[in-house]
Design goal:
The chain is α/β, with parallel strands linked by helices. The chain has 14 helices and 14 strands. The strands form two sheets. The chain has an eight-stranded mixed beta sheet, with helices on both faces. Strand 9, helix 12 and strand 10 form a beta-alpha-beta unit. About 45% of the residues are buried. Bound molecules: uridine-5'-diphosphate-glucuronic acid.
Length: about 425
């Protein structure tokens, strides 16, 4: 099939490469010339396991990136994959969706072929019906029925996005007519996953509800973990016992310093605003966010019990990315922790295997180290903030510290004397 993808960000790029891997002819529209060049050269600007290898196979063959919309009229489907960041009011900012619809609509103007517009971006329920459909029809001048509409949310985890795309738990396709939904379904032919067909709004809501539920599991574990900590109980032992109930399952019950990233905080916040708009008080969702705001500060509280006055003390911070296997620091829980430490006059020496450079752009004032050993040398305390597996191998490196106060915010360390945030 001939597929166009609008937006060469993380979702658009991964989807384009994986569509090409599924055998489709893909045209990726991206306004940033640097990204276009890098994609066509087979060198992605983002780090994602397996991505570079697949791109090097498909770039210039069945995947082409371009800055213009010229390839749209010849494609069967266009997937909108632009960002929907959190707006100033906490709601989803749909400005990139609006401009993508305008350009996409204009490009479909002088074309008689049936075309399906698929929204893959995470958008609040009602967006496809109330914004995307009227806008594309207006700018294209086409009649309803000549263009089909569908919503096909993504459930890709950063770091595992290629694996998640190729082995999905489910494929959700929302449409208000059969034909566009069928066409989207045929794109995924060959993938062994249940396909859920719904209306447009339900598919939009499935994405928000999924992310909100996963965020809820994490905040729940963190709250139980905070109680466990006071009672001298290991929350990981507790959650192992809880998660083996198949009605609950063991995933996303890892307590720690909370969830970050470009998705959970933004999507839960958008859902809270959506609930407010329709007159529902989102009691549970607000609490999920409240726990997540408080959780990073708990690790500083624990530190202050061992090191009363941290002013002028060297604190090694291991892990800056919002999770392992990525250099992404958006909404990383390391940010509030480091700000709190700096505000109290501590001297922060940070190390992350991949995210030093991206964190330096946000917090330039702290010291960035080339290795864990360098950060730990002469440190008065160490906080572990990202679940990088390699931190589990650290052992004699802790002997470099001036005083051995080690607090694990992610349950990755294997050394016996590390104190856990919730265990
Ligand atoms: C998340 C969802 O998992 C994807 O399904 C979804 O497609 C994506 O958002 C999105 O909306 O695009 P992602 O943000 O890449 O994916 O990362 P996750 O692996 O879900 O982790 C999010 C945060 O939760 C991280 O900070 C991680 O450290 C934290 N976490 C995760 C916990 O604190 N405990 C856990 O048990 C699991």
């Amino acid at each position: 099939m001939r597929i166009s993808v609008i937006g060469g960000g993380y979702v658009g790029l991964v989807s384009s490469i994986c569509f090409a891997e599924l055998g489709h002819l893909v045209s990726l529209v991206e306004i940033d010339p640097e990204k276009v060049e890098s994609i066509n050269l087979g060198k992605p600007l983002i780090y994602e396991k397996g991505l570079k290898q697949l791109l090097s196979i498909h770039a210039g063959r069945n995947l082409h990136a371009r800055q213009n919309y010229d390839a749209i009229p010849a494609s069967d489907l266009s997937f909108i994959c632009v960002g929907t960041p959190q707006g100033d009011d906490g709601y989803a900012d749909l400005s990139m969706i609006r401009s993508a619809c305008r350009s996409l609509g204009q490009s479909l103007k002088d074309n008689d072929d049936y075309h399906v517009v698929v929204v893959k971006s995470t958008v609040p329920p009602g967006t496809t019906e109330d914004l995307v459909m009227p806008s594309i029809l207006e700018y294209s001048g086409r009649e309803p029925g000549e263009i089909g509409f569908a919503i096909n949310p993504e459930f890709l985890r950063e770091g595992l996005a290629v694996q998640d795309f190729m082995n999905p738990d489910r494929i959700v396709i929302g449409s208000n007519e059969k034909r566009p939904g069928d066409l989207v379904e045929s794109v995924y032919h060959g993938l062994a996953a249940p396909i859920i067909r719904t209306g447009l709004k339900s598919a939009e809501m499935i994405k928000y509800a999924s992310n909100a539920f996963l965020a809820t599991k994490i905040s729940f574990s963190n709250e139980i973990g905070n109680v466990c900590k006071r009672l001298g109980i290991d929350v990981y032992e507790v959650m192992k016992g809880v998660g083996l109930d198949h009605r609950i399952n063991p995933y996303f019950l890892n307590a720690g310093i909370g969830f970050g990233g470009s998705c959970f905080p933004k999507d839960v916040s958008a859902l809270i605003h959506l609930a407010d708009r329709v007159g529902v008080t989102p009691v549970l969702l607000r609490s999920v966010m409240d726990v997540n705001e408080q959780q990073p500060l708990k690790i500083v509280e624990i530190l202050l019990k061992s090191v009363k006055d941290i002013k002028g003390k060297r604190v090694a911070v291991l892990g800056l990315a919002f999770k392992n296997d990525t250099d992404d620091v958006r909404e990383s829980r390391a940010i509030p922790v480091i700000k709190e430490l700096v505000g109290r006059g501590a001297l922060v020496a940070a190390y992350d295997p991949k995210a030093n450079a991206s964190m330096r752009e946000i917090l330039p004032e702290i010291e960035y180290c080339k290795s864990a050993s360098q950060a730990l040398t002469d440190a008065d305390a160490c906080l572990v903030l990202t679940e990088w597996p390699e931190f589990g191998d650290l052992n004699k490196e802790f002997e470099l510290m001036r005083s051995r106060v080690i607090i694990d915010g992610r349950r990755v360390l294997s050394c016996r004397d590390a104190e856990g945030i919730c265990w």
